[in-house]
Design goal:
Elements: H1 7-10, E1 33-35, H2 37-43, E2 48-53, H3 63-76, E3 81-85, H4 89-101, E4 104-110, H5 116-124, E5 128-132, H6 136-149, E6 153-154, H7 160-166, H8 168-177, E7 183-187, H9 192-208, E8 214-220, H10 225-228, H11 250-259, E9 263-267, H12 269-280, H13 292-302, E10 312-317, H14 326-329, H15 342-353
Helix pairs in contact: 3-4, 3-7, 4-5, 7-9, 8-9, 9-11, 12-13
Length: 354
């Protein structure tokens, strides 16, 4: 029986990485592509829809794909420390892979802008977490400057090896479906992932003639610099993972959308939270930002702006719901309180049927 060995070893021949790279892996990747026909019915469409559930990666988000390669490259060249700015998922992933390699990890987070589930991960894996009185963009500027002045490796998506790892998700989709999907929808924050997917589709098409997907990138209305055409100084959205006003890969993201004959749109927080609940009712619980891609599809379908009839569509769900449980728990109704008696339970069930 073949043993899965993580994205770097599985796809090494398709990745542009230096020879000194030494594999540090938590067996990331190989995440499920889940068909959701009942969701398609709810959306009123006649197309195939699959969810690429990246929340099944080791630290619960897609960041692990890129981090295994970035940390492996850094470890291979003898680096002892890594640093990143993060709204949460990058922090947890960097900390986990650095811990795996025995390296020091430093994480800079913006004040009050990181979900507790994500911060807990970074702390649990042993990262040194520093909170600044500023935005994610301020934090990113600081870590870039620090990495240029000190012997510490930057592992944000500005690191090219992050994108090399993240593009493996496109490879997996093509392998499962046999071709690239007609459309790929995904959330857009710092814009590394949309860039990586387009790189991946182009690379696999060149090697295996799998075709190219049209890409629908989706931002939150309160944090939509690529839609507005200018930076957002004070981005605000419930979807903390994409609360970024100056995407590091903005230019490449716009190129990916244009080259793929797709587009980048914005949806409201209400649309994102409604889709999060709808996805959960179909058995897939994701953090709010991860629902943005499917929310974008629903937005375009409702307005007649996209024709998916007979098409094969993949939506990327980038992180697990446990990453940001406060969104659910703060409005969660209290459990029904009943005595520990069969009659009480039967009476309750009978009432619920009526």
């Amino acid at each position: 029986m073949a043993v899965y060995s993580g994205v770097l070893e599985t796809y090494r021949d398709y990745l542009d990485i230096p020879e000194h790279t030494r594999t540090i892996t938590l067996l990331e990747g190989n995440t499920p592509l889940i068909p959701v026909p009942r969701l398609v019915e709810t959306l009123g469409g006649k197309f195939e829809l699959y969810l690429k559930f990246e929340g099944m990666n080791p630290t619960g988000s897609f960041k692990d794909r890129g981090m295994t390669v970035a940390i492996s490259e850094a470890y291979g060249k003898g680096a002892k420390s890594v640093i990143c700015a993060s709204t949460g998922n990058t922090a947890a992933s960097a900390a986990a892979y650095a811990a795996r390699a025995g390296m020091r990890s430093i994480v800079i987070i913006p004040a009050g802008k990181v979900a507790a589930g994500k911060l807990a991960g970074a702390v649990a894996y042993g990262a040194e977490v520093i909170q600044i009185d500023g935005s994610f963009d301020d934090a990113l500027n600081l870590v870039v400057a620090l990495s240029e002045r000190h012997p510490i490796v930057l592992v944000n998506s500005l690191n090219p090896y992050r994108l090399e790892g993240q593009k493996t998700a496109a490879f997996e989709i093509c392998e499962v479906l046999g071709t690239a999907p007609d459309w790929l929808a995904l959330p857009v924050g710092n814009a590394g992932n949309i860039t990586a997917y387009w790189m991946g589709f182009k690379r696999f098409n060149k090697q295996k003639s799998t075709g190219l997907a049209r890409i629908l990138g989706v931002q939150a209305e309160g944090s939509a610099p690529l839609v507005l055409g200018h930076p957002v100084e004070h981005p605000e959205t419930v979807a903390t993972a994409i609360r970024i006003g100056r995407p590091a890969r903005a230019e490449q993201a716009l190129e990916a959308a244009e080259e793929s004959k797709g587009r980048i749109i914005a949806v409201s927080d209400n649309e994102i939270l409604s889709m999060q609940k709808l996805l959960a009712s179909n058995g897939v619980w994701v953090e709010p930002a991860s629902a943005a891609g499917v929310a974008g599809l629903a937005h375009e379908l409702e307005r007649g702006l996209i024709d998916l009839g007979g098409k094969r569509v993949v939506a990327v769900c980038t992180g697990h719901g446990l990453k940001d449980p406060d969104i659910i728990t703060r409005d969660m109704p209290k459990p029904h309180a009943l005595p520990a008696e069969m009659n009480a339970l039967e009476d309750y069930l009978a009432r619920e049927r009526k």
